[in-house]
Write a structure and sequence with these properties.
Largest sheet: 7 strands, parallel
Order of helices and strands: EHEEHHEHEHEHEHEHEHEHEHEHEHHH
CATH topology of the largest domain: Rossmann fold
CATH class of the largest domain: Alpha Beta
Number of strands: 13
Structural class: alpha/beta
Number of helices: 15
Length: 390
């Protein structure tokens, strides 16, 4: 039987929720039926060693300086000119034109060098946004799908223009499916739910690979993620200040790195929390840190499916999460954690409530340990099989 050609397009393969979701998908694909190619649009490959060896990986190593092209230089000059004389709207207009030009230059290079003569049976933009635009405009495939991993669509206008070119849309859960129907009036039958899969046994094994020494006389909190504004590390720091003001003995582990790290460090210093919060930097294996904690805290402003919430639950850790779409989907209040409003006061209040209520903590711990995850792998496998073989 001739194999079908399946292309998966991702922006990069650094540590993140969508990237972990992608790696899980690659584990369940039927390589007897599919010839699988993974295309990474950016040469950022921290997790490349985790990709199944049967996958053909193409990495875009384009080093072109598109900002030096004459048209790009012109747009930069016009944007700078209008900015100097105080015309912010006109400056932004030319800046947006510049961004679009850079995107177009890059995609022209990618199509010419990697996809000019290739045809696929199925192509999946594993992340919405520019990978979706690339699949829509530059890939020749019989069927095309785009996977949304967000509950906020910052590129709504772009998506609205290209979604008609896709056979279907992938969502992580029913709440997101409802959002996609609302945003784009997509027929329900065109939206396929692919729930995230987290390998509990593997996480348990990895969590024991390193011993994290933490003080025994303090409550250990943990939050893993890329340090960006949407992840709410600032909320976590402000909540930590409230904990300290209430004489709660704690150590909070921030496992991650990112563009807002310096801002977060400054906030930690402002509130004199240098002894109470430790930023570990990005860890390929964050599970020993989660395992060393008493409570996992997710303080995001926006989250569709917090993979780390699933991972914390697999390690039997109660979760305090803000009421994002993902938080409300994954955290059942007083069953496997607590839900807080998206502000530092509610976040701190719920952390303190969980610390002080030993009976509730014991009940949540019992609920988590009684969960049966044995059929998750097969359900995940069947979801992809149903999609790809329909």
């Amino acid at each position: 039987m001739k194999k079908k050609k399946l292309l998966i397009v991702a922006q990069h393969l650094t540590i993140g929720g969508a990237q972990k979701s992608l790696l899980a998908a690659l584990k369940v694909l039927d390589y007897e039926k599919f010839d699988v190619t993974l295309y990474l649009r950016k040469n950022r490959t921290d997790l490349l060693s985790c990709v199944d060896e049967r996958v053909n990986v193409i990495i875009n190593d384009d080093k072109s300086h598109y900002y030096r092209k004459p048209y790009a230089v012109l747009l930069q000059g016009l944007s700078a000119f209008w900015k100097v004389i105080g015309e912010k709207e006109k400056a932004e207009k030319y800046n947006n034109k510049l961004k679009n030009a850079i995107v177009n230059y890059s995609m022209e290079y990618e199509k010419k060098h990697f996809f000019s003569s290739e045809k696929y049976d199925i192509a999946i933009a594993y992340v919405h946004g520019y990978p979706a635009l690339f699949v829509a405009e530059c890939v020749n495939a019989e069927k095309k799908y785009v996977f949304f991993h967000t509950s906020v669509d910052e590129l709504h206008d772009m998506h609205k223009k290209i979604l008609s070119k896709f056979t279907g849309v992938l969502a992580e859960h029913d709440l997101q499916k409802d959002l996609l129907e609302e945003w784009y009036s997509i027929p329900p039958e065109k939206i396929h739910i692919i729930e995230n899969y987290v390998d509990r046994e593997l996480i348990l094994l990895q969590s024991k690979s390193e011993f994290i020494e933490v003080p025994e006389d303090k409550i250990i909190l943990c939050y893993c993620g890329r340090i960006t504004s949407v992840k709410g590390f600032d909320l976590a720091v402000k909540a930590a200040k409230i904990l300290k003001d209430n004489n709660v003995p704690f150590l909070w582990l921030f496992v991650g790195d990112g563009p807002d790290r310096e801002k977060v460090e400054q906030l930690i210093k402002k509130y004199n929390l240098e002894e109470d919060i430790v930023i570990t930097g990005m860890k390929k294996n964050p599970y020993p840190y989660i395992a060393a904690s008493h409570i996992y805290v997710q303080s995001s402003y926006e989250e569709n499916t917090g993979i780390t919430i699933l991972e914390a639950h697999r390690l039997d850790k109660p979760v305090v999460s803000t009421k994002t779409v993902g938080g409300k989907k994954l955290v059942k209040h007083q069953e496997n954690g607590l839900l807080a409003e998206i502000n530092e006061f509610s976040l701190a209040e719920n952390i303190i409530a969980l610390i002080n209520d030993k009976q509730l903590m014991a009940s949540i711990s019992k609920n988590l340990k009684s969960q049966n995850y044995s059929d998750e792998f097969e359900r995940h496998k069947l979801s992809w099989q149903k999609l790809l073989e329909e």
